[in-house]
């Protein structure tokens, strides 16, 4: 069965853009958002001044908007950094607001800093965004007539309250997120092995890859810094590492079109329950006597390996000065960060100029919209601008209805709680949903704290639309290279990762170090393929050549995944009565993958290369030939304009 390809018929890009991610409702995040934003309003209203509650709840917004699932230490660093950066930006905006000669340069400077520090990682990126957002927001607070020290004090109080709400259960649930992540791996293993349809099993394999990546990321982030709980983190990491052989054997079995015994699937479910409950692991089911199939034997051996665990060396955290040097090196290694910073700074400067020249009420929302939409590492600029506009229109309608009906008192508190919960759901489902709930919440906050009337509603709509127009015109349509494809270079990187996996997976791992290297190569290949899918999903929503060329690359992406699965199917049998393939054949496979990567980077058809004719490698060869056919396919013309990939990504190797 061929992998379905998206079809960018005229309205279909919008369907892709509005599609909601099918993930469960994050009830914990919903509860925390409601407590952080609605409780200050409730207490202040009970005390007789709901306006003060609105100012305090504004200080809780940075943590709510930056909230993310993960280990407590990770969340503490992410939320703490975002809140601290937002507080600094808010203070800068308060001190310069009301004086355009000071506020405009301050906002432009903060925008540039925000874009540059994004290269330091996801946490720094979120912190930079919050610093910009609340700097801009604070520049408009001078119109309230409230003293700066009172505004800043309320903001700090709300920020402290939101951090307390986010982290209050750390002392009793410190390892719960990591346990959940590891348990989810076993759930996805059971789901993949239970699938009866090829398309369903392939989706399940993608979900398994995501679960493995998430579990490793959380454990490697959380462990080794809390000495009292390091043993718990280390146990979970050893357990996850010991699961790798079972994962490889399961992928091999699915790729071969077989299904395991029901007892194997039930065992994975039982493992998930035991990990969640912190109970001893159940005993694995016995292997069938005299099992001749090496894949089945590898699967049962993998189940036994899970119970024994692995003994991994304790990872030492990198010192702060080394991380700082790596960030500085990333800034100097290529132009992408500086190009993104220049685009954001230019659009913010244009927004500030429009706010000064056009007599608009609360014109700082124009700059606010530009900063949020044009953040350099948050996906498609076009997609975020459209979703922001749609979400704001819906949110303004909701806010206008609330203010128009004259809701007050506890009704406003209840509505704020609903909007806060909607923000948490929108963060994991769809950016447009998040915007639709953020808008009425801020309308209520601004109305309660400032005017109390509906004038903010129309201003919010007009300013947001203007901000989106600035982004689409100056940051997308007129910006050089913004509509050019960027998937091709990443696809070539994925081919390199698969080639590295081939060189490790198709040789006999006679030592622990060799087995660890093979495991890392497998994780690297599948992670690269998962990242490639993410990049494709961000690009496919655009109705420009960028989106069309992303669609044209889709068969090549799918072919890479099938090559990796076929390699896994062969690799798990090595050492179980089956010798490894001839080294010369392995070299032919890696050379073929290298030729594909070179063809993608050099914008040409791949040359014909010799491939192994060994029976054992026939599955790998078949999938590799499909990959060659996909690169040479009828959509090659759509993928042709890749020159900017090489110009903007000079670190990619060319052969």
UniProtKB/TrEMBL annotation:
One of its GO terms (cellular component) is plasma membrane. It is found in: Cell membrane. The chain crosses the membrane at residues 33-58, 79-102, 108-138, 150-172, 381-403, 409-426, 457-479. The keyword Cell membrane applies. Keywords: Cell membrane, Membrane, Transmembrane, Transmembrane helix. InterPro entries: Memb_transporter_dom. Signal peptide: none annotated. Residues 351-474 form the Integral membrane bound transporter domain. It is a multi-pass membrane protein. The keyword Transmembrane applies. Belongs to the YccS/YhfK family. This is Membrane protein.
């Amino acid at each position: 069965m061929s992998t379905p390809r998206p079809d960018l018929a005229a309205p279909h890009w919008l369907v892709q853009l509005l599609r909601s991610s099918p993930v469960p409702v994050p009830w914990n995040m919903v509860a925390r958002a409601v407590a952080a934003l609605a409780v200050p309003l409730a207490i202040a209203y009970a005390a007789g001044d709901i306006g003060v509650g609105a100012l305090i709840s504004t200080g809780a917004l940075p943590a709510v908007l930056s909230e993310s699932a993960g280990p407590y230490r990770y969340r503490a660093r992410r939320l703490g950094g975002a809140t601290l950066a937002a507080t600094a930006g808010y203070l800068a905006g308060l001190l310069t607001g009301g004086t355009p000669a000071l506020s405009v340069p301050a906002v432009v400077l903060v925008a540039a800093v925000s874009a540059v520090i994004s290269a330091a990682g996801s946490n720094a990126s979120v912190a930079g965004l919050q610093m910009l957002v609340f700097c801009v927001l604070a520049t408009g607070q001078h119109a309230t007539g409230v003293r700066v020290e009172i505004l800043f004090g309320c903001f700090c109080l709300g920020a402290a309250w939101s951090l307390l709400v986010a982290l209050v259960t750390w002392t009793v649930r410190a390892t719960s997120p990591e346990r959940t992540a590891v348990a989810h791996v076993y759930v996805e293993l059971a789901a993949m092995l239970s699938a009866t349809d090829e398309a369903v099993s392939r989706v399940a394999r993608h979900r398994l890859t995501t679960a493995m990546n998430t579990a490793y990321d959380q454990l490697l982030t959380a462990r080794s810094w809390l000495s009292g709980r390091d043993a718990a983190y280390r146990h979970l990491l050893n357990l996850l590492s010991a699961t790798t052989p079972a994962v490889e054997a399961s992928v091999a079995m699915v790729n071969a079109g077989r299904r395991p015994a029901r007892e194997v699937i039930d065992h994975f479910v039982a493992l998930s329950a035991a990990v969640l409950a912190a109970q001893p692991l159940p005993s694995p089911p016995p292997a069938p006597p005299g099992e001749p199939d090496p894949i089945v034997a590898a699967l049962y051996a993998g189940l036994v390996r899970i119970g024994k665990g692995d003994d991994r060396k304790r990872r030492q955290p990198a010192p702060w000065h080394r991380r700082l040097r790596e960030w500085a090196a990333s800034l100097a290694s290529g132009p992408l960060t500086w190009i993104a910073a220049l685009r954001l700074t230019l659009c913010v400067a244009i927004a500030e100029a429009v706010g000064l020249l056009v007599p608009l009420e609360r014109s700082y929302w124009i700059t606010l919209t530009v900063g949020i939409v044009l953040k350099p590492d948050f996906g498609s600029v076009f997609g975020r601008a459209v979703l922001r506009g749609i979400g704001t229109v819906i949110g303004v309608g909701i806010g206008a209805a609330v203010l128009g009906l004259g809701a007050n008192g506890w009704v406003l508190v209840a509505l704020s709680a609903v909007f806060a919960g909607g923000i948490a759901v929108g963060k994991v489902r769809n950016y447009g949903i998040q915007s639709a709930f953020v808008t009425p919440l801020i309308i209520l906050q601004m109305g309660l704290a400032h005017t109390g009337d509906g004038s903010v509603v129309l201003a919010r709509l007009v300013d947001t639309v203007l901000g989106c127009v600035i982004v689409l015109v100056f940051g997308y349509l007129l910006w050089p290279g913004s509509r050019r494809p960027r998937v091709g270079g990443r696809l070539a990187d994925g081919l390199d990762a698969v080639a590295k996996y081939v060189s490790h997976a198709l040789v006999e791992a006679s030592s622990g170090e060799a087995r660890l290297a093979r495991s890392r190569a497998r994780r690297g290949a599948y992670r690269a393929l998962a990242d490639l899918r993410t990049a494709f999903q961000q690009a496919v929503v655009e109705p420009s050549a960028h989106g069309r060329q992303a669609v044209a690359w889709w068969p090549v992406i799918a072919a890479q995944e099938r090559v990796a699965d076929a390699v896994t199917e062969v690799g798990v049998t090595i050492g179980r009565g089956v010798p490894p393939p001839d080294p010369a054949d392995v070299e032919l496979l890696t050379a073929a993958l290298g030729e594909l990567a070179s063809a993608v980077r050099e914008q040409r058809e791949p040359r014909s290369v010799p491939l192994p004719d060994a029976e054992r490698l026939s599955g790998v060869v078949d999938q590799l030939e499909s990959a060659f056919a996909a690169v040479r396919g009828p959509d090659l013309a759509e993928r042709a304009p890749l020159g900017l990939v090489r110009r903007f990504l000079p670190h990619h190797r060319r052969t």
